[in-house]
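anyone seen this seq b4? input:
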Amino acid sequence: MKRKSYKDLKTWVTLRDYRPDDYTAIMDLWADTGLGGAQRGDDQRIIEQSIAMGGKLLVAESDDGELLGTSWMTFDGRRIHLHHLGVLPSYQRRGIGRLLSIASIDFAREKGIQIKLEVHRSNTAAIALYKNLGFKYLGDYDVYIIREFGGLIMR
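predicted toks r here
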């Protein structure tokens, strides 16, 4: 089978909004790309709730219906947070991530608000893409999170 190229990307990849029946394929993609999943609180209820609150989940789909990538944007009332922008490993380096990134930036631009993301410092390919698209490094910030409250002592 001939490898589909960047040159004709828009002829074989479609970006569209999330549909509930995408959930299983999205969980598989996020597992394959190390982006997350239900164990990190990224379940179907949370995804759909974030969309209802003004966010968006874009999926990149091949011309034969295969889910190739995602860009999940949540809205906190002040800015768009870009999460889980990823592409199946076998389809990386073909422009799909760039296509998803540009569509995500366009979504924030249409809302007239900032867009922010976090990326692991070892992900140099993603960092290069984001910088190329105009994202700026915020500085020496550390990111902390509480995912479970079971053993947490609150006073």
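The two ends are 61 Å apart (CA to CA). The chain has one domain: 9-132. kinda curious what u guys think
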